[in-house]
Amino acid sequence: MYDENEVAISNKYLKEVIIAIEEPIVIMGGWAVYFLVNDRYKETTGRDYIGSRDIDLGFSMADADIGSSAFALALKKLEDGLGFEHQAFRLFKGTHAETGEVLDPEESKKMPGYQIFSMYVDLIVDKIPEGFKEQFGFTPIDEPLLGPVFADPGNRTEVGEYGKQLWLPSPNMMLAMKMKSHPDRGKEHKRIKDVSDIAALLLFGSIKKDGEWLASFLSAEDIARFKDALTAEDIGKAAQVIGVEPSLIETAINQILK
């Protein structure tokens, strides 16, 4: 689904980011799914689960002084220490799509687009506090489901990677996040990746099989929107991505939605 070089570049920068910022480090999105399912997925298929092209980091904005918050400290490390630049609410580096080497802006203007890979890091908050834009100059992505990840150890999975302790949303929480985001995906590859991750979590992520817990995290409207947005075509393409039969994905999703 994703170019192997781009995923390898993303993994390289994931390691750099994890080493650079302070714990607790909350990994979200596609890399969180990778860490949650890869062991069982590899046992079953003989290959690693797909990673991600982007890096998503989660932050609690409970600190009274947002200027000295974990978010502020991580942002400074990424900008000043690792050289990431702003592109609206995202951080990015222009890199060579084959080598991962950082490209000089003038150099990249002379290169064809297919040789450039934009490495994005998204800093996601549980809520947007008053004065955020005035402090940082942009409005971040917010994900209210991050709040329970910080508040309750039962809503997170802790793993060690690159010498640091990482917090991942629990498989159930990650599934809820993916189901919530899927209907709003405008780009096909993002939508198919969401369905692939949902399927992987259900089949390889030790998810509670009954869907009663979903109501604790998603509203009836969120669940209805997911049902309406999900298509047989998306399921078929996701099945090809993760290497399982479409019927397995359909059965797993139907079971959780009962």
What string, H for helix and E for strand, traces the elements in order? Answer: HEHEHEEHEHEHEEHHHHH
When the domains are counted, the total is 2
For this entry, what is the oligomeric state of its chains? single chain
* Beta-strand percentage range: 15-25%
Rg measurement, Å: 18 Å
Explain this structure to me?
Strands 1, 2, 3, 4, 5, 6, 7 and 8 form an eight-stranded mixed beta sheet that branches. This protein has 258 residues and is of the alpha/beta class. Helix content is 47%, strand content 17%. It has helices at residues 4-20, 29-45, 70-81, 105-109, 132-136, 146-151, 171-181, 188-204, 220-229, 232-242, 246-256, and strands at residues 25-28, 55-59, 85-87, 90-96, 116-125, 141-142, 156-161, 164-169. It starts with a helix and ends with a helix. The chain has two domains: 1-169, no CATH class; 171-258, no CATH class. The chain contains eleven helices and eight strands. β5 (116-125), α5 and β6 (141-142) form a beta-alpha-beta unit. The chain is globular and about 50 Å long.
